[in-house]
Design goal:
By secondary structure, this protein is an alpha/beta fold. The chain contains 12 helices and 27 strands. α7 packs across α8. The chain is elongated and about 100 Å long. Bound molecules: adenosine-5'-triphosphate and magnesium ion. Adenosine-5'-triphosphate (ATP) binds next to α2, β8 and α9.
Protein backbone atom coordinates (compact mmCIF):
# COMPACT_ATOMS: atom_id res chain seq x y z
CA UNK A 1 0.00 0.00 0.00
CA UNK A 2 1.33 3.42 -0.87
CA UNK A 3 1.81 5.50 2.21
CA UNK A 4 -0.18 8.70 2.11
CA UNK A 5 1.42 11.77 3.62
CA UNK A 6 -0.27 14.71 5.23
CA UNK A 7 0.53 18.28 4.20
CA UNK A 8 2.87 18.80 7.15
CA UNK A 9 4.94 15.80 6.11
CA UNK A 10 5.19 17.24 2.60
CA UNK A 11 6.52 20.49 4.07
CA UNK A 12 9.03 18.62 6.23
CA UNK A 13 10.19 16.56 3.25
CA UNK A 14 10.75 19.77 1.36
CA UNK A 15 12.67 21.39 4.21
CA UNK A 16 14.93 18.36 4.54
CA UNK A 17 15.49 18.13 0.81
CA UNK A 18 16.32 21.80 0.52
CA UNK A 19 18.66 21.61 3.47
CA UNK A 20 16.69 24.09 5.59
CA UNK A 21 17.05 21.56 8.41
CA UNK A 22 19.00 18.34 8.63
CA UNK A 23 16.77 16.81 11.30
CA UNK A 24 13.32 17.16 12.83
CA UNK A 25 12.53 18.40 16.31
CA UNK A 26 8.97 18.94 17.48
CA UNK A 27 7.33 19.76 20.77
CA UNK A 28 3.98 19.73 22.53
CA UNK A 29 3.66 23.03 24.40
CA UNK A 30 0.70 23.03 26.82
CA UNK A 31 -0.15 25.87 29.13
CA UNK A 32 -0.54 24.19 32.54
CA UNK A 33 -3.92 25.82 33.18
CA UNK A 34 -6.19 22.79 32.93
CA UNK A 35 -6.30 19.13 31.97
CA UNK A 36 -5.62 18.09 28.39
CA UNK A 37 -8.47 16.97 26.17
CA UNK A 38 -8.97 14.89 23.04
CA UNK A 39 -7.90 17.84 20.87
CA UNK A 40 -4.58 18.00 22.67
CA UNK A 41 -4.26 14.26 22.15
CA UNK A 42 -4.29 14.98 18.45
CA UNK A 43 -1.55 17.57 18.81
CA UNK A 44 0.56 15.28 21.02
CA UNK A 45 0.23 12.30 18.71
CA UNK A 46 0.90 14.44 15.65
CA UNK A 47 4.06 16.03 17.07
CA UNK A 48 5.31 12.83 18.64
CA UNK A 49 4.50 10.84 15.51
CA UNK A 50 6.37 13.24 13.23
CA UNK A 51 9.50 13.13 15.37
CA UNK A 52 9.35 9.34 15.37
CA UNK A 53 8.72 9.06 11.68
CA UNK A 54 11.70 11.26 10.81
CA UNK A 55 14.01 9.81 13.43
CA UNK A 56 13.96 13.12 15.25
CA UNK A 57 13.26 14.39 18.74
CA UNK A 58 10.07 15.31 20.52
CA UNK A 59 9.77 17.22 23.78
CA UNK A 60 7.02 17.97 26.20
CA UNK A 61 7.54 21.62 27.04
CA UNK A 62 5.39 23.56 29.45
CA UNK A 63 4.42 27.00 28.28
CA UNK A 64 4.60 28.24 31.85
CA UNK A 65 5.01 31.94 31.15
CA UNK A 66 1.79 33.18 32.73
CA UNK A 67 2.11 32.69 36.50
CA UNK A 68 -1.41 33.94 37.26
CA UNK A 69 -3.19 30.94 35.75
CA UNK A 70 -0.85 28.01 36.20
CA UNK A 71 -1.10 25.18 38.68
CA UNK A 72 1.21 22.36 39.72
CA UNK A 73 -1.68 19.90 39.79
CA UNK A 74 -2.16 20.39 36.07
CA UNK A 75 1.51 19.80 35.30
CA UNK A 76 1.50 16.37 36.93
CA UNK A 77 -1.67 15.41 35.10
CA UNK A 78 -0.30 16.61 31.75
CA UNK A 79 2.94 14.66 32.18
CA UNK A 80 0.93 11.55 33.02
CA UNK A 81 -1.31 12.04 29.96
CA UNK A 82 1.58 12.47 27.54
CA UNK A 83 3.33 9.46 28.98
CA UNK A 84 0.21 7.33 28.79
CA UNK A 85 -0.49 8.30 25.18
CA UNK A 86 3.01 7.97 23.77
CA UNK A 87 5.23 6.28 26.34
CA UNK A 88 7.24 9.54 26.54
CA UNK A 89 9.88 9.38 29.23
CA UNK A 90 12.34 12.01 28.05
CA UNK A 91 13.03 15.15 30.08
CA UNK A 92 10.26 17.67 30.60
CA UNK A 93 11.12 21.18 29.46
CA UNK A 94 9.87 24.43 30.96
CA UNK A 95 9.61 27.70 29.06
CA UNK A 96 10.38 29.50 32.32
CA UNK A 97 13.89 28.03 32.15
CA UNK A 98 14.49 30.36 29.20
CA UNK A 99 13.47 33.62 30.90
CA UNK A 100 17.12 34.74 30.89
CA UNK A 101 17.54 34.08 27.17
CA UNK A 102 14.28 35.84 26.45
CA UNK A 103 15.31 38.85 28.49
CA UNK A 104 18.65 39.03 26.68
CA UNK A 105 16.89 38.79 23.32
CA UNK A 106 14.59 41.63 24.33
CA UNK A 107 17.64 43.74 25.19
CA UNK A 108 19.15 42.93 21.77
CA UNK A 109 15.94 44.00 20.10
CA UNK A 110 15.91 47.28 22.03
CA UNK A 111 19.54 47.90 21.10
CA UNK A 112 18.64 47.49 17.45
CA UNK A 113 15.96 50.12 17.86
CA UNK A 114 13.18 47.60 17.32
CA UNK A 115 11.43 47.81 20.70
CA UNK A 116 10.48 50.55 23.11
CA UNK A 117 9.09 51.01 26.58
CA UNK A 118 5.56 52.36 26.55
CA UNK A 119 3.73 54.11 29.33
CA UNK A 120 0.30 53.81 27.76
CA UNK A 121 -2.29 51.99 29.84
CA UNK A 122 -3.83 48.77 28.55
CA UNK A 123 -6.94 50.76 27.72
CA UNK A 124 -4.97 53.34 25.72
CA UNK A 125 -3.04 50.68 23.87
CA UNK A 126 -6.35 49.20 22.80
CA UNK A 127 -7.59 52.59 21.62
CA UNK A 128 -4.39 53.31 19.71
CA UNK A 129 -4.47 49.94 18.01
CA UNK A 130 -7.06 50.90 15.38
CA UNK A 131 -9.41 48.41 13.76
CA UNK A 132 -9.49 46.05 10.80
CA UNK A 133 -10.46 48.97 8.59
CA UNK A 134 -8.54 51.79 10.28
CA UNK A 135 -4.80 51.98 10.93
CA UNK A 136 -3.59 52.44 14.47
CA UNK A 137 -1.90 55.51 15.95
CA UNK A 138 1.71 55.68 17.00
CA UNK A 139 2.47 55.36 20.68
CA UNK A 140 3.74 58.71 22.09
CA UNK A 141 6.72 56.80 23.55
CA UNK A 142 7.61 55.18 20.24
CA UNK A 143 10.63 57.37 19.52
CA UNK A 144 12.45 57.13 22.83
CA UNK A 145 16.20 56.72 22.50
CA UNK A 146 17.78 53.27 22.79
CA UNK A 147 19.50 54.39 26.02
CA UNK A 148 16.25 55.45 27.60
CA UNK A 149 14.52 52.26 26.53
CA UNK A 150 17.31 50.16 28.01
CA UNK A 151 17.13 52.14 31.25
CA UNK A 152 13.34 51.86 31.52
CA UNK A 153 13.32 48.16 30.64
CA UNK A 154 15.87 47.61 33.42
CA UNK A 155 13.61 49.68 35.65
CA UNK A 156 10.67 47.40 34.79
CA UNK A 157 12.73 44.39 35.68
CA UNK A 158 14.11 45.80 38.93
CA UNK A 159 10.67 45.89 40.55
CA UNK A 160 10.22 49.67 40.78
CA UNK A 161 7.40 49.82 38.25
CA UNK A 162 3.87 48.93 39.34
CA UNK A 163 1.81 46.38 37.38
CA UNK A 164 0.42 47.88 34.19
CA UNK A 165 2.44 51.11 34.32
CA UNK A 166 4.87 50.14 31.55
CA UNK A 167 5.18 47.58 28.78
CA UNK A 168 7.85 46.73 26.26
CA UNK A 169 6.44 47.00 22.75
CA UNK A 170 7.86 45.83 19.45
CA UNK A 171 8.40 48.67 17.00
CA UNK A 172 6.90 47.26 13.83
CA UNK A 173 4.09 49.08 12.02
CA UNK A 174 0.96 50.68 13.48
CA UNK A 175 -0.58 50.73 10.01
CA UNK A 176 -0.04 47.04 9.26
CA UNK A 177 -3.14 45.35 7.87
CA UNK A 178 -2.30 42.52 10.28
CA UNK A 179 -3.27 43.86 13.71
CA UNK A 180 -0.85 41.44 15.39
CA UNK A 181 1.96 43.48 13.83
CA UNK A 182 0.84 46.83 15.26
CA UNK A 183 3.57 47.19 17.85
CA UNK A 184 2.57 44.16 19.94
CA UNK A 185 3.50 44.01 23.60
CA UNK A 186 6.52 41.82 24.27
CA UNK A 187 6.81 42.16 28.05
CA UNK A 188 4.51 43.23 30.84
CA UNK A 189 5.07 43.96 34.52
CA UNK A 190 3.39 41.52 36.90
CA UNK A 191 4.40 41.29 40.51
CA UNK A 192 3.38 37.66 40.80
CA UNK A 193 5.77 34.97 41.99
CA UNK A 194 6.24 32.11 39.54
CA UNK A 195 5.95 28.45 40.57
CA UNK A 196 9.46 27.72 39.31
CA UNK A 197 11.37 31.01 39.17
CA UNK A 198 9.78 32.29 42.40
CA UNK A 199 10.54 36.03 42.89
CA UNK A 200 13.26 36.28 40.31
CA UNK A 201 11.09 38.04 37.76
CA UNK A 202 8.41 40.68 37.95
CA UNK A 203 8.26 41.05 34.19
CA UNK A 204 6.87 38.26 32.06
CA UNK A 205 6.99 37.74 28.28
CA UNK A 206 3.74 37.80 26.34
CA UNK A 207 2.69 34.66 24.50
CA UNK A 208 3.58 35.96 21.03
CA UNK A 209 7.09 36.78 22.17
CA UNK A 210 7.58 33.79 24.43
CA UNK A 211 6.44 31.07 22.08
CA UNK A 212 8.80 31.66 19.15
CA UNK A 213 11.58 32.36 21.64
CA UNK A 214 11.05 29.00 23.33
CA UNK A 215 11.08 27.18 20.00
CA UNK A 216 14.23 29.02 18.95
CA UNK A 217 16.14 28.47 22.20
CA UNK A 218 15.22 24.82 22.26
CA UNK A 219 16.09 24.02 18.67
CA UNK A 220 12.59 23.13 17.52
CA UNK A 221 12.55 22.79 13.75
CA UNK A 222 8.84 22.51 13.06
CA UNK A 223 6.60 24.38 15.47
CA UNK A 224 3.21 22.88 14.83
CA UNK A 225 0.22 24.74 16.15
CA UNK A 226 -3.45 25.24 15.42
CA UNK A 227 -5.03 27.45 12.80
CA UNK A 228 -5.88 30.41 15.01
CA UNK A 229 -2.17 31.25 15.08
CA UNK A 230 -1.87 31.61 11.32
CA UNK A 231 -2.24 35.41 11.58
CA UNK A 232 0.45 35.43 14.25
CA UNK A 233 3.03 33.77 12.01
CA UNK A 234 4.53 37.05 10.70
CA UNK A 235 5.08 38.08 14.32
CA UNK A 236 6.51 34.65 15.14
CA UNK A 237 9.02 35.07 12.32
CA UNK A 238 9.77 38.64 13.41
CA UNK A 239 10.57 37.55 16.96
CA UNK A 240 12.80 34.71 15.78
CA UNK A 241 14.70 37.05 13.45
CA UNK A 242 14.99 40.12 15.67
CA UNK A 243 15.68 38.05 18.78
CA UNK A 244 18.74 36.67 16.95
CA UNK A 245 18.63 33.38 18.79
CA UNK A 246 20.84 31.65 16.23
CA UNK A 247 18.23 29.10 15.24
CA UNK A 248 15.15 29.55 13.05
CA UNK A 249 12.15 27.34 13.77
CA UNK A 250 9.25 27.23 11.34
CA UNK A 251 5.61 27.50 12.36
CA UNK A 252 3.06 25.32 10.55
CA UNK A 253 -0.65 25.46 11.38
CA UNK A 254 -3.28 22.72 11.19
CA UNK A 255 -6.99 22.62 11.97
CA UNK A 256 -8.16 21.86 15.50
CA UNK A 257 -10.03 18.72 16.31
CA UNK A 258 -13.63 19.31 17.30
CA UNK A 259 -16.18 16.69 18.24
CA UNK A 260 -19.77 17.21 17.19
CA UNK A 261 -22.02 18.00 20.17
CA UNK A 262 -19.31 17.24 22.71
CA UNK A 263 -17.94 19.68 25.27
CA UNK A 264 -14.26 19.86 24.27
CA UNK A 265 -12.68 23.26 25.03
CA UNK A 266 -10.58 23.56 28.16
CA UNK A 267 -12.62 26.51 29.32
CA UNK A 268 -15.91 24.61 29.05
CA UNK A 269 -14.59 21.48 30.69
CA UNK A 270 -13.26 23.68 33.48
CA UNK A 271 -16.75 25.07 34.00
CA UNK A 272 -18.26 21.58 34.28
CA UNK A 273 -15.65 20.78 36.92
CA UNK A 274 -16.01 24.04 38.84
CA UNK A 275 -19.81 23.83 38.87
CA UNK A 276 -19.51 20.23 40.17
CA UNK A 277 -21.57 18.94 37.25
CA UNK A 278 -18.94 16.25 36.82
CA UNK A 279 -16.77 14.33 39.26
CA UNK A 280 -13.51 16.18 38.56
CA UNK A 281 -11.34 16.63 35.48
CA UNK A 282 -11.19 12.88 34.92
CA UNK A 283 -14.93 12.21 35.01
CA UNK A 284 -15.52 9.36 32.53
CA UNK A 285 -18.13 11.45 30.73
CA UNK A 286 -15.75 14.16 29.63
CA UNK A 287 -13.26 13.99 26.81
CA UNK A 288 -10.27 15.10 28.85
CA UNK A 289 -7.48 12.60 28.23
CA UNK A 290 -7.72 11.57 31.88
CA UNK A 291 -11.49 11.16 31.50
CA UNK A 292 -11.13 9.05 28.38
CA UNK A 293 -8.52 6.90 30.09
CA UNK A 294 -10.71 6.45 33.15
CA UNK A 295 -13.71 5.61 30.98
CA UNK A 296 -11.65 2.85 29.37
CA UNK A 297 -10.31 4.27 26.12
CA UNK A 298 -6.81 3.11 25.17
CA UNK A 299 -3.86 4.97 23.63
CA UNK A 300 -4.24 2.71 20.56
CA UNK A 301 -7.87 3.75 20.10
CA UNK A 302 -6.96 7.44 20.29
CA UNK A 303 -4.12 6.92 17.81
CA UNK A 304 -6.49 5.31 15.36
CA UNK A 305 -8.98 8.11 15.90
CA UNK A 306 -6.38 10.79 15.23
CA UNK A 307 -5.28 8.96 12.07
CA UNK A 308 -8.81 8.61 10.80
CA UNK A 309 -9.69 12.21 11.55
CA UNK A 310 -6.76 13.35 9.41
CA UNK A 311 -4.47 16.38 9.48
CA UNK A 312 -5.72 19.30 7.47
CA UNK A 313 -5.80 23.05 7.08
CA UNK A 314 -9.60 23.20 6.98
CA UNK A 315 -11.70 23.23 10.13
CA UNK A 316 -14.14 20.37 10.47
CA UNK A 317 -15.90 18.41 13.17
CA UNK A 318 -15.40 14.75 13.89
CA UNK A 319 -18.04 12.34 14.97
CA UNK A 320 -17.97 10.86 18.47
CA UNK A 321 -19.22 7.67 16.80
CA UNK A 322 -15.86 7.46 15.06
CA UNK A 323 -14.10 7.52 18.43
CA UNK A 324 -16.43 4.72 19.53
CA UNK A 325 -15.61 2.79 16.39
CA UNK A 326 -11.91 3.09 17.23
CA UNK A 327 -12.21 1.70 20.74
CA UNK A 328 -14.38 -1.18 19.53
CA UNK A 329 -11.76 -1.98 16.92
CA UNK A 330 -9.06 -1.99 19.56
CA UNK A 331 -10.90 -4.00 22.20
CA UNK A 332 -12.76 -6.56 20.15
CA UNK A 333 -9.90 -9.03 19.87
CA UNK A 334 -8.17 -8.13 23.12
CA UNK A 335 -10.91 -8.55 25.69
CA UNK A 336 -12.57 -11.57 27.26
CA UNK A 337 -16.27 -11.88 26.67
CA UNK A 338 -17.93 -12.33 30.04
CA UNK A 339 -21.41 -12.98 31.36
CA UNK A 340 -22.93 -10.02 33.16
CA UNK A 341 -26.58 -9.29 33.70
CA UNK A 342 -27.15 -5.57 34.10
CA UNK A 343 -30.82 -5.61 35.07
CA UNK A 344 -31.27 -8.98 36.74
CA UNK A 345 -34.39 -11.03 37.31
CA UNK A 346 -34.28 -14.56 38.67
CA UNK A 347 -34.79 -17.59 36.44
CA UNK A 348 -35.55 -20.89 38.21
CA UNK A 349 -35.18 -24.17 36.31
CA UNK A 350 -37.73 -26.25 38.19
CA UNK A 351 -36.62 -29.64 36.86
CA UNK A 352 -32.90 -29.08 37.49
CA UNK A 353 -31.68 -30.94 40.59
CA UNK A 354 -31.52 -28.71 43.64
CA UNK A 355 -28.04 -28.08 45.05
CA UNK A 356 -26.32 -29.40 41.93
CA UNK A 357 -23.91 -27.33 39.82
CA UNK A 358 -22.04 -27.87 36.57
CA UNK A 359 -18.97 -26.23 35.14
CA UNK A 360 -19.58 -25.37 31.50
CA UNK A 361 -17.06 -24.38 28.85
CA UNK A 362 -17.16 -20.80 27.62
CA UNK A 363 -14.79 -19.49 24.96
CA UNK A 364 -13.19 -16.21 26.05
CA UNK A 365 -13.36 -14.57 22.65
CA UNK A 366 -15.07 -16.16 19.66
CA UNK A 367 -12.95 -14.14 17.21
CA UNK A 368 -9.64 -14.74 18.97
CA UNK A 369 -9.00 -18.32 20.04
CA UNK A 370 -5.72 -17.31 21.65
CA UNK A 371 -7.65 -15.96 24.60
CA UNK A 372 -8.65 -19.54 25.44
CA UNK A 373 -11.69 -20.58 27.41
CA UNK A 374 -12.93 -20.76 30.95
CA UNK A 375 -15.46 -22.62 33.05
CA UNK A 376 -18.70 -20.97 34.08
CA UNK A 377 -20.89 -22.28 36.85
CA UNK A 378 -24.41 -23.41 35.98
CA UNK A 379 -27.08 -24.09 38.58
CA UNK A 380 -30.82 -24.33 39.17
CA UNK A 381 -31.17 -20.64 39.91
CA UNK A 382 -29.84 -18.09 37.47
CA UNK A 383 -30.16 -14.40 36.72
CA UNK A 384 -31.21 -13.20 33.30
CA UNK A 385 -31.82 -9.71 31.89
CA UNK A 386 -35.22 -8.36 32.82
CA UNK A 387 -35.94 -7.52 29.19
CA UNK A 388 -35.18 -11.08 28.09
CA UNK A 389 -38.58 -12.04 29.48
CA UNK A 390 -41.99 -10.73 28.46
CA UNK A 391 -45.33 -11.68 29.86
CA UNK A 392 -46.98 -11.05 26.53
CA UNK A 393 -44.57 -11.10 23.64
CA UNK A 394 -45.06 -9.15 20.43
CA UNK A 395 -44.30 -10.81 17.09
CA UNK A 396 -40.57 -11.13 16.43
CA UNK A 397 -39.76 -11.36 20.14
CA UNK A 398 -37.74 -14.57 20.33
CA UNK A 399 -36.64 -14.52 23.92
CA UNK A 400 -38.48 -15.88 26.96
CA UNK A 401 -42.25 -15.74 27.29
CA UNK A 402 -44.65 -18.36 28.62
CA UNK A 403 -44.50 -21.42 26.38
CA UNK A 404 -41.41 -20.33 24.43
CA UNK A 405 -38.10 -22.17 24.27
CA UNK A 406 -34.69 -20.43 24.08
CA UNK A 407 -31.05 -21.40 24.39
CA UNK A 408 -29.15 -20.38 27.49
CA UNK A 409 -25.76 -19.39 26.16
CA UNK A 410 -23.12 -22.18 26.58
CA UNK A 411 -25.81 -24.32 28.34
CA UNK A 412 -29.24 -25.88 27.71
CA UNK A 413 -32.53 -25.13 26.01
CA UNK A 414 -35.15 -23.97 28.49
CA UNK A 415 -38.90 -23.48 28.08
CA UNK A 416 -40.72 -20.84 30.07
CA UNK A 417 -43.50 -22.32 32.19
CA UNK A 418 -44.67 -19.53 34.51
CA UNK A 419 -43.65 -16.40 36.39
CA UNK A 420 -44.23 -14.59 39.71
CA UNK A 421 -44.95 -10.93 40.36
CA UNK A 422 -44.82 -8.67 43.39
CA UNK A 423 -47.66 -6.43 44.62
CA UNK A 424 -46.56 -3.68 42.21
CA UNK A 425 -46.83 -5.94 39.21
CA UNK A 426 -43.10 -6.35 38.72
CA UNK A 427 -41.87 -9.75 37.64
CA UNK A 428 -39.76 -11.27 40.41
CA UNK A 429 -39.12 -14.82 39.24
CA UNK A 430 -39.41 -16.57 35.90
CA UNK A 431 -39.86 -20.34 35.92
CA UNK A 432 -38.80 -22.77 33.26
CA UNK A 433 -37.84 -26.36 32.60
CA UNK A 434 -34.73 -27.52 30.80
CA UNK A 435 -34.07 -30.34 28.36
CA UNK A 436 -30.96 -32.23 29.53
CA UNK A 437 -30.41 -33.52 25.97
CA UNK A 438 -29.71 -30.04 24.62
CA UNK A 439 -26.48 -29.29 26.42
CA UNK A 440 -24.24 -27.05 24.36
CA UNK A 441 -21.42 -28.98 22.73
CA UNK A 442 -23.27 -32.29 23.04
CA UNK A 443 -23.98 -32.40 19.31
CA UNK A 444 -27.71 -32.03 19.88
CA UNK A 445 -29.47 -30.54 16.87
CA UNK A 446 -32.94 -32.04 16.80
CA UNK A 447 -34.78 -28.72 16.89
CA UNK A 448 -34.07 -25.08 16.40
CA UNK A 449 -34.64 -22.17 18.76
CA UNK A 450 -34.60 -18.59 17.62
CA UNK A 451 -33.36 -16.89 20.75
CA UNK A 452 -30.18 -17.22 22.81
CA UNK A 453 -29.96 -15.37 26.09
CA UNK A 454 -27.15 -14.86 28.57
CA UNK A 455 -27.27 -15.50 32.30
CA UNK A 456 -25.20 -15.87 35.42
CA UNK A 457 -25.60 -18.54 38.04
CA UNK A 458 -27.05 -17.28 41.33
CA UNK A 459 -24.54 -19.58 43.01
CA UNK A 460 -21.54 -17.86 41.51
CA UNK A 461 -22.87 -14.39 40.73
CA UNK A 462 -21.49 -11.36 42.32
CA UNK A 463 -23.28 -8.01 42.64
CA UNK A 464 -21.31 -5.21 41.02
CA UNK A 465 -21.90 -1.57 40.25
CA UNK A 466 -21.95 -0.99 36.54
CA UNK A 467 -22.14 2.52 35.10
CA UNK A 468 -23.72 3.29 31.75
CA UNK A 469 -22.81 6.60 30.20
CA UNK A 470 -24.34 8.91 27.65
CA UNK A 471 -23.26 12.29 26.35
CA UNK A 472 -23.29 14.84 29.13
CA UNK A 473 -25.12 17.09 26.68
CA UNK A 474 -28.62 16.43 25.42
CA UNK A 475 -27.71 16.01 21.75
CA UNK A 476 -31.24 16.41 20.45
CA UNK A 477 -31.34 19.97 21.70
CA UNK A 478 -27.73 20.98 21.00
CA UNK A 479 -24.94 22.00 23.34
CA UNK A 480 -26.37 25.28 24.66
CA UNK A 481 -29.70 26.53 25.93
CA UNK A 482 -31.03 29.91 24.80
CA UNK A 483 -29.57 31.55 27.91
CA UNK A 484 -26.10 30.19 27.08
CA UNK A 485 -26.10 27.52 29.78
CA UNK A 486 -25.20 23.93 28.89
CA UNK A 487 -28.02 21.66 27.86
CA UNK A 488 -27.38 18.81 30.26
CA UNK A 489 -28.57 15.25 29.77
CA UNK A 490 -30.03 13.93 33.06
CA UNK A 491 -29.19 10.34 32.02
CA UNK A 492 -25.51 10.87 31.33
CA UNK A 493 -24.58 8.41 34.09
CA UNK A 494 -26.87 5.55 35.12
CA UNK A 495 -25.66 3.15 37.80
CA UNK A 496 -26.83 -0.48 37.67
CA UNK A 497 -26.71 -3.18 40.33
CA UNK A 498 -25.57 -5.92 38.02
CA UNK A 499 -25.02 -9.64 38.56
CA UNK A 500 -21.71 -10.64 37.03
CA UNK A 501 -19.56 -13.76 36.85
CA UNK A 502 -17.85 -14.36 40.18
CA UNK A 503 -14.32 -14.23 38.77
CA UNK A 504 -14.85 -10.55 37.86
CA UNK A 505 -14.60 -9.75 41.54
CA UNK A 506 -10.84 -9.79 41.19
CA UNK A 507 -10.75 -7.43 38.18
CA UNK A 508 -8.06 -4.78 38.46
CA UNK A 509 -8.30 -1.03 37.73
CA UNK A 510 -8.38 -0.35 33.97
CA UNK A 511 -8.90 -4.04 33.19
CA UNK A 512 -11.26 -4.33 30.23
CA UNK A 513 -13.93 -6.84 29.30
CA UNK A 514 -16.67 -7.41 26.85
CA UNK A 515 -19.97 -8.11 28.58
CA UNK A 516 -22.11 -10.27 26.31
CA UNK A 517 -24.61 -8.11 24.42
CA UNK A 518 -24.01 -5.11 26.70
CA UNK A 519 -20.76 -3.57 25.54
CA UNK A 520 -17.13 -3.06 26.48
CA UNK A 521 -16.40 -2.22 30.11
CA UNK A 522 -13.37 -1.01 32.04
CA UNK A 523 -12.73 -1.10 35.77
CA UNK A 524 -12.87 2.37 37.31
CA UNK A 525 -9.58 3.27 39.01
CA UNK A 526 -11.10 5.64 41.58
CA UNK A 527 -14.37 4.17 42.76
CA UNK A 528 -13.37 0.50 42.79
CA UNK A 529 -12.22 -1.17 45.99
CA UNK A 530 -10.20 -4.32 46.27
CA UNK A 531 -12.69 -7.14 45.62
CA UNK A 532 -15.40 -4.66 44.62
CA UNK A 533 -14.70 -3.33 41.16
CA UNK A 534 -16.94 -0.71 39.56
CA UNK A 535 -17.34 -1.17 35.82
CA UNK A 536 -17.58 1.78 33.43
CA UNK A 537 -19.14 1.14 30.07
CA UNK A 538 -16.70 2.42 27.47
CA UNK A 539 -18.99 1.80 24.54
CA UNK A 540 -21.90 -0.40 23.53
CA UNK A 541 -21.21 -3.29 21.16
CA UNK A 542 -22.94 -2.33 18.00
CA UNK A 543 -23.54 0.76 16.00
CA UNK A 544 -24.76 1.68 12.59
CA UNK A 545 -21.69 3.89 12.17
CA UNK A 546 -19.68 3.50 8.99
CA UNK A 547 -16.35 5.17 8.37
CA UNK A 548 -16.47 8.22 6.11
CA UNK A 549 -14.87 7.64 2.72
CA UNK A 550 -11.42 9.10 2.29
CA UNK A 551 -11.38 12.19 0.12
CA UNK A 552 -9.08 12.62 -2.82
P1 LIG B 1 -8.31 25.06 24.51
O1 LIG B 1 -8.53 25.56 23.11
O2 LIG B 1 -9.07 23.81 24.80
O3 LIG B 1 -8.52 26.10 25.55
P2 LIG B 1 -5.52 25.64 24.41
O4 LIG B 1 -5.22 25.82 22.97
O5 LIG B 1 -5.68 26.85 25.23
O6 LIG B 1 -6.78 24.65 24.57
P3 LIG B 1 -2.85 24.89 25.07
O7 LIG B 1 -2.36 24.33 26.33
O8 LIG B 1 -2.48 26.27 24.69
O9 LIG B 1 -4.43 24.74 25.10
O10 LIG B 1 -2.55 23.92 23.86
C1 LIG B 1 -1.40 23.13 23.72
C2 LIG B 1 -1.32 22.68 22.28
O11 LIG B 1 -2.47 21.90 21.92
C3 LIG B 1 -1.27 23.84 21.31
O12 LIG B 1 -0.26 23.58 20.37
C4 LIG B 1 -2.63 23.85 20.70
O13 LIG B 1 -2.61 24.39 19.42
C5 LIG B 1 -3.02 22.38 20.72
N1 LIG B 1 -4.47 22.20 20.74
C6 LIG B 1 -5.34 22.77 21.60
N2 LIG B 1 -6.61 22.43 21.31
C7 LIG B 1 -6.54 21.61 20.22
C8 LIG B 1 -7.52 20.93 19.42
N3 LIG B 1 -8.82 21.02 19.69
N4 LIG B 1 -7.08 20.19 18.39
C9 LIG B 1 -5.78 20.08 18.12
N5 LIG B 1 -4.81 20.68 18.82
C10 LIG B 1 -5.17 21.45 19.86
MG1 LIG C 1 -3.97 28.39 24.88
Amino acid sequence: MEESKNFIEHEIDKDLKEGVYDHVQTRFPPEPNGFLHVGHAKSILLNYGLAKKYGGTFYLRFDDTNPSKEKEEFMDAIIADVKWLTGYDDKVLYASDYFDEMYEAAVRIIKNGKAYVSELSAEEIREYRGTLTEPGKNDPNRDRSVEENLRLFEEMRSGNVPDGAMTLRAKIDMASPNINMRDPILYRVAHIPHARTKDKWCIYPMYDFAHPSEDAVEGTTHSICTLEFEDHRPLYDWVVKEGAYGHTPRQIEFAKLYLENIVTGKRYIKKLVEDSIVDGWDDPRIVSIAGLKRRGFTPESLKLFVELSGISKANSVSDYAMLEYCIREDLKLKTKRMLAVLDPVKLVIDNYPEGETEELDAPNNMENEELGSRKVTFSRELYIERDDFMEEAPKKYFRLFPGNEVRLMYAYFVTCTSFEKDENGNVTVVHCTYDPETKSGSGFNARKVKGTIHWVSAQDAYLAKVRLYENIIDEEKGVYNDDGSLNLNPNSCVVKDAMVEGCLKEAAPFEKFQFVRNGFFSVDPKDSQEGAPVFNRVVSLKSSYTLPKKEG
